[in-house]
Amino acid sequence: MTLKTSQGQTRYRAPRGTQDVLPAEQPSWQYIREQADALCREYGYQRIDTPVFEDLGLFVRSVGEATDIVEKEMYTFEDRGGNVLALRPEMTAPVMRAYLEHGMASLPQPVKLYYVANAFRYERPQAGRLRQFTQFGIEAVGESDPALDAEVVEMAWRLLHRLGLRWLVLKLNSIGDPVCRPHYLETLKAYYQPYAGAVCRDCQVRLERNPLRLLDCKQGACQPVIAGAPKITDDLCPACQEHFDLLRHYLAELGVPYALEPRLVRGLDYYTRTVFEIQPQEGGQQSTIVAGGRYDGLIEELGGRPTPGIGFAAGFERMIQALKAAGVPVPQPPGPAVFLAYQVTEEGALLAAKDLAIRLAARLRQSGVQAAMPYGDRSLRAQLRLANTLGAQYVWVIGQEELQAGAVQVRTMATGAVTHLPVDDALALLRHQSPAGATPPGSESTG
Question: Is residue 201, in this structure, part of any structural domain at all?
């Protein structure tokens, strides 16, 4: 996007619905990535990355032609070879395409995969909802045991709790399968017929093309109708009912609390049986942080053999929004262990002191120690202010006296203590105080 300045110059801005993640905001993103990676290691999930764009047909067949995503929200384009492609609006279909393409059905089942990826939807931007967004998600493919459903739900619950989020509600439902769902859809359509003129325009279309999505409408005018709609859990076939009962049993065994939400559905056509969402207790549906469910017919729809699967996705933007709202402190990166400053008065000595600072900084960094130094030949006072701003643990000052003696003046920033040490002694002191596992500096002298 562009705008004109008062001088008539063109300035560019990030496209609407996108954002720059600035350095000050990176710790939150890093914190979530680290916690998600650790969680996946504990449960045996392996990372997968897929292309940012796919054949358009992949999403039409998987997500559903009559969904809002396909009809309204996808970014599509034709490349120079005439192929019609789409920026991925979600990650499950690309992961299932990769599962089929690379013969993962021959691996021990279930195949457990996870991703951290950007996705794209042309939606109305609002808090926690962007047109380019980032998701952490998992997919467990090749097993229909409801114990696996419970594990996936537990992972989602544990992810948010290990991030430090509390006061959450887990909403759970079963939406049946191709055996029992058709009868429910006829019941739902019959219920909605008297209200056909009162619901929103989108729901009037859904009533004919995708009636289950009627329950997913966010328009206020449709909420009273949704509240009185028949419950799909009253229409489950024996197999789906048994699956749902066992899932609830296993969640009780795991100590995961949940609330039954019989009108919970997901916005994608491939879901079957288990669906769930996790929200802040006071947030409402628009603040859903994690959502997922089972998709037992998806791989078959994409040309593979019948293969069950289940997964969830969690939006980074929503998780960060929830962390801020809850006041959860996020670990901040440490400042440099050493800031190298220099001050001299004799002509020509400045260059030698700066040379020594450069060599020491390189030596520290090569040994795994975070080091910083000033540029532009600032005054010593300005250098010390910069060291304080950066959060340096120590400042090593090289003055004329230190330069001649091959020493540094070591200032401990936390206490203000100052001592003069030979370079090798300063390095040894730092090595002694380095955290376990850090690679200490070498012991060779630097003149």
Answer: no
